[in-house]
Amino acid sequence: MISRLAIEGYRSIRSLVVDLAPLTVVTGANGSGKSSLYRALRLLADCGEGRIIASLAGVGGLDAVRWAGPERGTAGGQRTEGTVRSGPVALRLGVATDSVGYAIDLGLPVAQRSAFDLDPEIKQEHVFAGSDPRPAGVLVERRRGAARVRLDDGWSDLAAGMHPWASVLDEFAGRADAAELAGTRRMLRGWRFHDALRTDAGAPARQPQVATRAARLDDDGANLAAVLQTAIEMGWDRELERAVADAFPGSRLRLPVVDGRMTVALEQPGMLRPLSAPELSDGTLQYLLLTAAMLSAEKPGLIVLNEPERSLHADLLPALAARIRDAASETQVLVVTHQAALADELGGLRVELEKVSGETRVAGREGPLDQPSWHWPRR
Ligand SMILES: Nc1ncnc2c1ncn2[C@@H]1O[C@H](COP(=O)(O)OP(=O)(O)OP(=O)(O)O)[C@@H](O)[C@H]1O
Ligand SMILES: [Mg+2]
Fold it and tell me: Locate the ATPase AAA-type core domain: which residues (predicted)?
């Protein structure tokens, strides 16, 4: 389970450390930093896929996403416009589980001599034991081009001249003497994100799809029917029936296969024939997509939902919350929402964000010392 998340220098997040629970609900007003936290998690997941640099370049490079306020924040309320930075530009992301953690520090190239102007560099990476990257717990350390692993009898070098865009997770995950790297990469790759599942008229979930078993919902929801049918065949038919009955009393889900292609349909009270996927309302489809994401045969390490309540009427929130709570009994779930009603239904650990002087903070915290411990390795 992921126990702690740390972000520094990303969009409105100057410095934030939050502890996570099996079910964590992140709420806050518009502009408080919920999406920033969500995107920071996605960037961490990108580290596991070896595409963090490309992702940052894709959104305009480090300059476009780094914290635009002063380094020390504005706790005293003094004017900050026109002040200059003294420290290096740094975007830092970190995550800790009960056994192992990972922290990455990204910065700008020292002297730019390349056409790839937007590419940031990986300055440091640390894999560590415990919930905080303190020096004593560091297992693998990468500083600029040099990487080393801690063995029983001291440090052993992994590399001396790593490229600034290469991650230790990619380069050395196969090394038997650095098994933590493979474990960390697997952990990051096991996260699933569901954001803006498409429900518009042309949504892939409304089209018939090849009938083949599907253990996880595609990012665009295209294999919705196959995921639901797979769940039924794996013995979750009662859970699925309950999900449909909770949201649409009297209705029954149908998953017809025609010429090897499968779609979703809903038998509804008062209708002479089941309504087919193109006829379902946006909210109905959104609910079925989220149900599929929660019931899918493959249980990921972490499911992250960004505003799952989108296009759902308030009446459906209790049913949605029930699906999420069920999933959270088997998988860790983090929900980002600005609907207080959904947050209340969900329960779990509530993290309320607020923006103070342009900076994202956790509501109720007295000050910087009032957050879980996290010691970023010094550059
Ligand atoms: N580089 C940056 N530095 C400082 N603040 C930034 C930067 N980029 C964006 N912001 C601000 O961060 C704030 C938080 O944005 P975010 O999208 O995370 O909000 P949100 O909580 O998801 O809001 P909503 O509920 O409207 O989606 C916004 O007010 C935005 O203007
Ligand atoms: Mg948002």
Answer: 23-343
- What's the 206 CA to ligand 1 centre distance in angstroms? 33
- Beta 91-97 vs 332-336: how paired, if at all? unpaired
Query: CA torsion sign, 7 to 10 to 16 to 19?
Result: negative
| Two tokens, residue 132 | 């905080």
Helix, strand, coil shares, percent, the chain, to 5: 30, 30, 40
* Protein residue with its CA nearest to atom 5 in ligand 1: 12
CB atoms under 10 Å from CB of 272, counted, come to 4
- Which residue is it, tokens 């892939």? 204
β-strand pairing of 138-143 with 359-362: unpaired
Phi, psi of 139 (to 5 degrees): -105, -40
Which amino acid residue places its CA nearest to atom 9 of ligand 1? 11
Q: What is d(CA 249, CA 336) in angstroms, rounded to the nearest whole number?
A: 27
Q: What is the pLDDT of residue 308?
A: 95
How many helices (H) does the chain have, and how many strands (E)? 10, 20
Q: Which of 21, 23, 2 is nearest to 324 (CA)?
A: 23
Q: What is the number of the ligand closest to the CA of 39?
A: 1
What are the Cα distances from residue 244, in Å, to 148, 286, 297, 310, 321? 53, 12, 18, 18, 13
